[in-house]
Amino acid sequence: MNETEINDNKDVPNCDKSVHTEKDQDPHLLGDLQRLSNGRADSAPATRLYKRRWAIVCLFSAYSLCNSFQWIQYGIINNIFMHFYSVDSFTIDWMSMIYMLTYIPFIFPVTWLLDKKGLRVIALAGAALNCLGTWIKVASVRPDLFGVTMFGQFSCSFAQVFILGMPSRIASVWFGSEEVSTACSIGVFGNQLGIAIGFLVPPMLVPNLQDNDQLAHYISIMFYGTAAVATLLFVLVVIVFQEKPPIPPTQAQVAMRNVPEEDYSYIQSILRLLRNMPFIILIISYGLNVGCFYAVSTLLNKMIIEHYPGEEVNAGRIGLTIVIAGMVGSLICGIWLDKTKTYKQTTLAVYVMSFIGMVVYAFTLDLGHLWVVFITAGTLGFFMTGYLPLGFEFAVELTYPESEGTSSGLLNCSAQVFGIIFTICQGKIIDRFGTLAGNIFLCAFLLLGSIMTGFIKSDLRRQKANQAAAASNSADNPEECVSSAVILNEAKL
Fold first, then answer.
1. Is the separation of the CB atoms in 182 and 335 below 8 Å?
2. For 179-215, how does the pLDDT look when each residue is reduced to its tens digit (9 = 90+)?
3. Which distant-in-sequence residues (6+ apart) come within 8 Å of 83 by Cβ?
4. Does the N-terminal peptide bond of residue 401 adopt cis geometry, omega within 30 degrees of 0?
5. Among 63, 181, 212, 304, which is most exposed with the fewest C-beta within 10 angstroms?
6. Angle between helix 484-492 and 461-473 (nearest 10)
7. Which are the contacts of 368, defined by CB distance < 8 A and separation ≥ 6?
8. Closest Cα partner for 319 from 420, 201, 438, 200?
9. pTM score, two decimals?
10. Treating both helix axes as pointing N-terminal to C-terminal, what angle do 212-240 and 52-72 enclose, rounded to 10 degrees?
11. Is-contact 66 130, C-beta < 8 A?
12. pLDDT, tens digit, for every residue of 455-479?
């Protein structure tokens, strides 16, 4: 149902207790939407779930996949691109680290734009920049054009700024309170699947050859295929992606919509977040965990080749195993959160298991058995990658009613900073002391992050808002219906 299809209807009871699905064609919803737009506080407007929400989150997941694939496509065949472009290993590492570096200065302008212009503008910008970057890289397949391929990678890394913090925002804007964590997991799922394909496909498409003409042919196949997919997804975003549903899915979203625009200040929102101590601890602990994942992913080829020479394809498969296991972990954790709402307990348990998985991976990497590496890497990935949606959703709970894009942006900014630091430091440690020392370096920070997570106060503000609305709407007396202002005040307590 489009907004143009919604007409005024004044015959609406003061308390509508139902959550509607798209098959319900109740004319009373029309008056509710009118009251929503007028900001009246004497009723709790109806909420509704639209089938389109699944198309929105799946489309986002698809173009996020295309973007994250390109993050790792150079690093996983590091030695091949070193030979083709005649550059050193550290230079190729920057093809991954540029994703992290670009995010840091641009995240604040982009989250401001998200708050001012909304989801559709951000989605169009992300898909367009990603598409542009893929075609620039198509034009860079010559040994003397490393600068061009770097510029194409920069465009894709800029697109990531418009993508990485979106899952929790899409989940909150489009999905009901009993499915937001699952929806967020689906959004993160695309990013993880893209990384998995980035580990698997490049070693299969681009063999380790000495002839640069042959290499150029295989690299072109990879770049043209990526460009075709990115172009198709951009067109779909233009056609399908919508800003928000006409009627919000939850009372928490009703409250957010009823805040007058002139009452919102992006700077004040940032300052409130920076005074939120549980959120600050989560920012640091999230950055430590995800930064370790970025370092392991970027340097995986180097670590595997050191102990298993000539195993570029298996290095990609091990990376695939890490991410596929993490995707399973993400979905399980998302469903678990929707069922139990145990945000802190689940986050802490997964964090501790990430630390244990890293320790086991570090001490078994050099045993000489690839099957052992596959098992330990998969276990590490299940928990370390599965942590990503947990961090997003826990942050939204701790910071409601602040913008989900802003809280997710700060989390990701922390992850990029630690990712750059850990990648550079672990790379230098591996070069000087070996892979065991480099992995122990990461274990120490995962232990620190686990301890910090234990100190986070579990103040679930979004849950309080929805519970306050549900309690008020269940009252027999219509005058006891909760207003949007009351919901927001409950959330800030």
1. yes
2. 777 787 787 778 878 888 888 888 888 888 888 888 9
3. 210, 212, 215
4. yes
5. 212
6. 140
7. 307
8. 200
9. 0.66
10. 160
11. yes
12. 887 766 666 666 666 666 555 444 4
